[in-house]
């Protein structure tokens, strides 16, 4: 589909998948950050001058200055992420800039990563891999690398949105008891037998495994702090697929070092990609580089959701993935 002639100018801050870029080229006069580097706000402003659409991702800070300098030409910001804590949506709204994101299509992929982290943290995936790879494995032993089994354990999902519910579905299949903390209690069909805790502190007290799936936001910064971590049962496991900023790193590292927390599985970090170096030294942390939605089919689907959403907007319809309408 061609939106109009001449095609609207658009700037792509990161390289998207081949099929998504092909769809974008058909519709837009597309400028691309060819080398896929992470652009500063100033670089975005320089490169995206004159664009009607800005395609971004969670690595770009679409702050007030970016939006004001690209306005009034800029009509839409389309982010290849479900999270939008990197976009100043209040200013976008004030300037009449529409914002689109990519919910739903990544819930399966992100919940799979949560299970990967959970299994690797509980079953000591990092140490196991290293033992075999380094040649230091001397053979099977009855007491080697004993971990924690998932069956019968209580998992607390913090943030029972679409991704949280998919995590619960998978955890249920592993025989786990599902608990959750959310701003609002879910209706029974979505809750599917899970126990609701209106109070986060109370939820943490029952968490053999605590999974952070709440959306990133300034209000939740540092919410998983020393005091809350101290509420977890002994030998609890923490998994984070949300945003690193929700966790107080000093507190988590202290708890991991002292054995208060058995292990952690982390896919997200404060100040990515500059991971707190102390995590790298810990054997009881399984680390992955923000891979939540990183499957070919998911990244294609995320990109096409933005493409289709913008097509709809240019035709005067409102797609379901609009955060801020224009
Ligand atoms: C998201 O979609 O928000 C993921 O964290 C990738 O940025």
State the gist of this model:
Helices cover 36% and strands 16% of the residues.
What do these coordinates show?
With 326 residues, the protein is α/β, with parallel strands linked by helices. The chain folds into two domains: 9-105 and 295-321, Rossmann fold (3-Layer(aba) Sandwich), CATH 3.40.50; 107-287, NAD(P)-binding Rossmann-like Domain (Rossmann fold, 3-Layer(aba) Sandwich). Helix content is 36%, strand content 16%. The protein is built from 13 helices and 13 strands. The chain has helices at 18-27, 41-48, 64-70, 89-95, 107-122, 125-134, 162-173, 188-191, 200-205, 226-229, 249-258, 277-280, 296-314; strands at 9-12, 29-32, 53-56, 76-79, 98-100, 154-158, 177-181, 195-196, 209-212, 236-240, 261-266, 285-287, 322-324. The strands form two sheets. Strands 8-7-6-9-10-11-12 form a seven-stranded parallel beta sheet. Strand 9, helix 10 and strand 10 form a beta-alpha-beta unit. It is elongated. The relative contact order is 0.14. The model has no long low-confidence stretch (mean pLDDT 97). The structure holds (2R)-2,3-dihydroxypropanoic acid (DGY). (2R)-2,3-dihydroxypropanoic acid binds at residues 57-58, 81-83, 106, 292-293.
């Amino acid at each position: 589909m061609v939106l109009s002639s001449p095609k609207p100018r658009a700037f792509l801050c990161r390289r998207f998948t081949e099929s998504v870029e092909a769809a974008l080229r058909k519709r837009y006069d597309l400028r691309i950050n060819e080398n896929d580097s992470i652009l500063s706000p100033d670089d975005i402003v320089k490169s995206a001058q004159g664009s009607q659409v800005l395609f971004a991702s969670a690595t770009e800070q679409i702050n007030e200055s970016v939006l004001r300098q690209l306005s009034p030409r800029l009509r839409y910001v389309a982010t290849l992420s479900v999270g939008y804590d990197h976009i100043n949506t209040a200013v976008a709204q004030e300037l009449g800039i529409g914002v689109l994101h990519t919910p739903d299509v990544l819930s399966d992929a992100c919940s799979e990563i949560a299970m990967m982290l959970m299994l690797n943290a509980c079953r000591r995936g990092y140490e196991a891999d290293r033992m075999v790879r380094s040649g230091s494995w001397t053979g099977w032993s009855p007491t080697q690398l004993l971990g924690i089994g998932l069956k019968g354990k209580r998992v607390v999902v913090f943030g029972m949105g679409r991704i949280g519910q998919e995590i619960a579905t998978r955890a249920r299949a592993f025989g786990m008891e599902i608990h959750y903390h959310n701003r609002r209690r879910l209706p029974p069909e979505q809750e599917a037998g899970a126990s609701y805790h209106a109070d986060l502190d109370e939820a943490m007290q029952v968490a053999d495994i605590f999974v952070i799936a709440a959306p990133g936001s300034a209000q939740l910064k540092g919410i998983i702090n020393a005091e809350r971590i101290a509420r977890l049962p002994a030998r609890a496991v923490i998994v984070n697929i949300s945003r690193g900023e929700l966790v107080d790193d000093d507190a988590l590292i202290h708890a991991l070092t002292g054995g208060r927390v058995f292990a952690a599985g982390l896919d997200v970090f404060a100040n990515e990609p500059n991971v707190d170096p102390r995590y790298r030294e810990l054997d009881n942390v399984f680390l992955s580089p923000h891979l939540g939605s990183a499957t070919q089919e998911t990244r294609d689907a995320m990109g096409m959701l933005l493409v289709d959403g913008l097509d709809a907007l240019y035709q005067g319809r409102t797609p379901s993935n609009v955060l801020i309408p224009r």
